[in-house]
Amino acid sequence: MPDPALLARARLLTAPDLAPAVRDGLAEITGRPWTAYPEQVTSGGPDGGPDSGPVVYVGATRPAGLPEEDLLWYHSVNAGTDALLAPGPWPAGALLTRTVGRMGARIAQYVLAWVLAECQSVPEFAAMHAREEWRRMPSELAAGQLALVHGTGRIGSAVASRLRACGLRTVGVARTVPAAPPPGFDRVVPAGGEAEREALGKARWVVAALPLTPGTENYFGAERFGYVRGASFVNVGRGATVDLAALGAALGTGAVRRAVLDVLPSEPAAPGDPCWRLPRTVVTSHSAGITADDDVLTDFAACWAELRAGRRPALTVDVGRGY
Predict the structure, then answer these.
(1) So which residues are the catalytic ones?
(2) CA distance 40 to 101
(3) Of 30, 76, 112, 137, which residue is the least packed, with the fewest Cβ within 10 Å?
(4) DSSP letter string, 155-169
């Protein structure tokens, strides 16, 4: 963790695209002026380069020229930090924290909306309305059916809690199985084991809420989709955790009933992108859990208070694991 003495005199650098209200809020929390980097425009002061010394940075990317040798703490305005870790080794000794805010609640609401929409045949009724066609469609009860949620952290747990509140059975998949299931889960099974394969075959919904790491890239590929028996697939984690060609093949055979993709390996998806031609699939614009400005300030303030008290922030990222 950062040395409290260094933190007390660290410069506050912010990404130039942060909203003015966020910058001013950060200044109020830390009791020091912000400096936009790399533009180097200091709030209430003249333009100019930063002085030397320890740095606290708030942003979404690692800008070229950031004095990483002086970096004490980087607070990401996003929940996912794969883009920050991808450029190379994280600066030795620098703390990395992230913004989660109310993202878990927003994403849980998104997943529940699509689950219930499918149960009520909303896509079919919308298509029938466009054709001016009156026809009864069957409804389906979500209660009692199995949702398999890959990822049991804050977001996965929020999704599972919302689904379980509607009577679904919830099983989580995690690399390490905890002694007791996190909130929202009936049980958790290990990734890659027989229990996961069995659950994939029994699930009505498979929800992906995984971070992107070397171990999760293309996690959902032909092998895993090969165990699915008619589940609908919802991805609210990272796009590159899914092999879209394998998903398309599974949709083609009916092994996957439907797909809802809020994230893609490459964004934004241009007209003509193969993702638009996946059958029985809806692509949304990475909007399931948009982070609000007050989320950034709330989570930064919590980390700041914990650091000032000599505690490791709950929102710390394990840079070795990537989440």
Answers:
(1) 238, 267, 286
(2) 28
(3) 137
(4) HHHHHHHHHHHTT-E
